[in-house]
Automatic annotation (TrEMBL):
GO molecular function: ABC-type transporter activity; ATP binding
Listed name of the protein: ATP-binding cassette sub-family G member 1
Subcellular location: Membrane
GO CC annotation: plasma membrane
ATP-binding recorded as keyword: yes
Membrane-topology annotation of the record: Multi-pass membrane protein
Keywords, comma-separated and alphabetical: ATP-binding, Membrane, Nucleotide-binding, Transmembrane, Transmembrane helix, Transport
Boundaries of every ABC-2 type transporter transmembrane domain copy: 63-275
Length: 364
């Protein structure tokens, strides 16, 4: 029996090419004491096993709930990590709120308010992305072991991992944005704050998905290096053209590249939330003789934001989030796949990446 089943080897987990090779080798073996070949006994043994018993008995929804509960408990037990992120958001909110104190309703400091919006974009680029770049390459070790042991589906694990991060991110976003919004004297209108919060939260979710995408196929060291490097062109494209006005010509190629930066759409959404939808005139201090940017529409025209569309910005952020999330899932799935490509060029390129850039190493 041991010889017949190859000591418990399950052939359905091996690639088809290797499976055919194993079966061809099995046919060349000598007959057993029962008079039948090892291959015949193996075929008979496979027929006696019900294939349904080899599948997970737990449903996808049950796997998702159990994994989500496990991840939430693990995150809650890591008190130092929770305190660090909480205090970091509080301190950062106090610093940003102090720097841009009172600029939201001051017509003489209207340009500084764009700097305030830019700080929100930068904060929700790095705050969600950097912890993922640091943690996920390490989690891949446990994911590979549990996935190959068929504890759960990859899709249930991935959905639980994304869902487990949202509640804490939501709470931190509420605390941070309320503090900086009030301290910077932005218009106290609920719908404007909700619009700003939606853009900021979508930007944070997209940044986290981008971090998962970057770290899905990189080691810890390479992921921590590539994350800030990828963020640099996104930041530059997000603020390119601000202050040029509508009279300055921008090349169509550059306009297309600007649309490829999700931070650009986040910036436009924040500006639309703060200055769009018929905002009242800004307050001009008595110490100022004349305030050029008292009218919000004139300010948007000077800065080149006269054609803002808040709904379009939200749709673009959602689209980028879906693209990054699905791309990260397929990258992880390819990483865990046992099948290899038959293309010689692809295999050679992968060997070069592994040898020189250490893309597939998780020994850090």
């Amino acid at each position: 029996m041991v010889d017949a089943v190859e000591n418990g080897k399950v052939y359905r987990w091996t690639p088809h090419r290797e499976r055919r090779q194993v079966k061809s080798d099995a046919t060349n073996k000598s007959d057993t004491t029962s008079g039948a070949s090892s291959f015949d006994e193996l075929e008979q043994f496979e027929e006696e096993i019900n294939p349904k018993l080899l599948k997970q008995k737990a449903s996808w929804w049950m796997q998702y709930k159990l994994l989500l509960t496990r991840m939430m408990v693990q995150m809650w037990r890591d008190k130092s990590y929770i305190k660090l992120r909480f205090y970091m958001n509080i301190v950062l909110a106090l610093i940003i709120g102090s720097i841009y104190r009172g600029v939201g309703d001051d017509a003489s400091k209207a340009f500084f308010n764009f700097g305030f919006a830019f700080t929100i974009i930068i904060a929700y680029l790095y705050l969600p992305m950097m912890p993922v770049l640091l943690q996920f390459p390490t989690e891949m070790k446990f994911l590979k072991r549990e996935y190959f042991n068929q504890w759960y589906h990859l899709s249930s694990y991935y959905a639980a991992m994304i869902s487990s991060k949202l509640p804490f991110m939501f709470v931190l976003a509420v605390i941070y944005l309320i503090m900086v919004y009030v301290m910077s004297s932005q218009p106290l209108e609920l719908f404007r704050f909700c619009m700003l919060f939606l853009i900021a939260f979508l930007t944070a979710m997209t940044s986290e998905s981008l971090g998962i995408l970057i770290s899905s196929h990189l080691s810890l060291v390479n992921a921590m290096f590539m994350g800030p490097v990828v963020a640099v062109p996104l930041i530059l494209l997000s603020c390119y053209g601000i202050g040029y006005g509508k009279s300055v010509y921008i090349h169509p190629v550059m306009r297309y590249l600007m649309q490829l930066s999700y931070l650009r759409h986040g910036m436009e959404g924040l500006v639309a939330a703060l200055y769009g939808y018929d905002r009242e005139d800004l307050h001009c201090p008595e110490t100022e003789v004349f305030c050029m940017f008292k009218k919000s529409k004139f300010l948007l025209m000077i800065l080149g934001f006269e054609n803002l569309n808040y709904v379009f910005s939200v749709a673009c952020l959602v689209l980028f989030y879906i693209i990054f999330t699905l791309a990260a899932y397929f990258m992880i799935r390819q990483r865990l796949s046992l099948r290899t490509s038959n293309n010689v060029i692809v295999q050679y390129a992968k060997q070069l990446l592994v040898k020189h850039l250490n893309f597939s190493s998780y020994n850090y």
